[in-house]
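Structural prep section.
Before we set up the soaks we want a predicted structure of the protein with zinc ion in place, mainly to decide which crystallisation condition to try first. Input record follows.
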Amino acid sequence: MSDRLYIFDTTLRDGEQSPGCSMNVEEKLRIAHALSALGVDIIEAGFPVASPDDFESVYRIASEVKDVTIAGLARAVSKDIEGVAKAIQPAGDRGRIHTFIATSPIHMQAKLRMSADEVVAQAVAAVKQARNLVAEVEFSAEDAGRSDDDFLCRIVEQVIDAGASIINIPDTVGYMTPDEFGLKIKHLRERVPNADKAIFSVHCHNDLGLAVANSLAAVEHGARQVECTINGLGERAGNAALEEIVMILRTRADRYAIDTGIDSTKIVSTSKLVAQITGMPVQANKAIVGANAFAHESGIHQDGVLKHQKTYEIMTPESVGWNTNRMVLGKHSGRAALKARYKTLSVELDDAQLKVVFARFKILADKKKDIFDEDLQAILSEDTEVDMERVKLVSLQVTSGTQDAPVAAVKLDIEGVEHEATAQGDGPVDAAFKAIQSLVEPNGKLLLYSVNAITAGTDAQGEVTVRLQDADSIVNAQGSDTDIVVASAKALIAALNKLPNMHAKAVHAQYSGV
Ligand code: KIV
Ligand code: ZN
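Run finished without errors. Recording the tokens verbatim:
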């Protein structure tokens, strides 16, 4: 049995299905580059037929992200399969079509309204079609966890004969327990006559908190591809967390004797990037990537760690990318140093982007002595395409305190014309939001507002995530600044810029500029 586990990352597809986590094409590209640098084997870049934007993201990722297999998802229907083939075409022989159909009784009867024979026939036809278009085809039996094992054996045998070389067994609803799921994989591998012609894969959801445990049980029984996401993002309670699987295999190599191609020192920066872009913060006590994952509070623990790190640490924070490369830049650093530092964070900046980011870096370095990697990620998370922004913040003045109601006065440049407004609010952020939103329409319903201190210290940048909804879209955006009211205003404006039909409110008085 091979001692190599393939990591199939589906942050950009299943992860994006987390409520409110939709990303735009540029954001997906940034994550895809980071995943490639992290060392994942396969990036599931999206579901091309879902929308023109989904198609474009898969196409751009297939064109621009090298050294990794690019997969696209397709239902077992002709138009989806053709869509994936077109979207992954720039990846050449690194492209994979991932096609699926449900196999559990409840899905076949209630959702598909198809007989078991019809499901097998459709799966086989889909795999054959896909195999005529690309060299590598993955087949998923959706809701395999609740599917009958005899039926699974039958369909798996036939799709392997039809050309599928990766067989994915999803626990779609997170219902399985580790023992059961491990045995399911064992039986399939033993009973399907042509099982040796395919790699068995698993895709576990976390509804009962067992996604990682179930994935590892499957690995113990011969699964050699695990589908997972950064920070465990995904539908409902999410998918198996990549960082946990990788670090369990590495930390407990004595037990598993199987490794991945992941560069674990890039885990934390990738996790932060995904959290920033999706606006889905990581809980502090989350394994591996939570802020407290390596923090020792009790005196007994601190004493132990000081005497010998291994008393309370089973892996080092450095091994997953905490505390590495702290503070490399300050106000005297130049463009080349900044560009190089971003490169170590797996971000390639072109000249135009570097110009914008460097200007932001200088402003920040004037306010804050030590610039950390987290700060660099944060200034990058603000939209780097500033010239494309229809609304820009010109100035913001807020008064607040214990006596009077907070008041914000804002001046915005909306498509080249300055507009200003003043508003009162329950707090300074509320006042600033009311002032900004009074100047544009549609101005979005605020679904989420969250603030994080990016680094330690009172001069830390606050990073604000805002999620807005209008009639047709939900958008996320971030803003960062050492002043959290300004960070909030930047985040709101960045989100407004993402609403396709947003424009200046006609009734508002224009500011003369003098
Ligand atoms: O959870 C699931 O079954 C899926 C499949 C499409 C692989 O996401
Ligand atoms: Zn899934």
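Observations: The first strand starts at residue 6 and ends at 9.
Flagged for discussion at group meeting.
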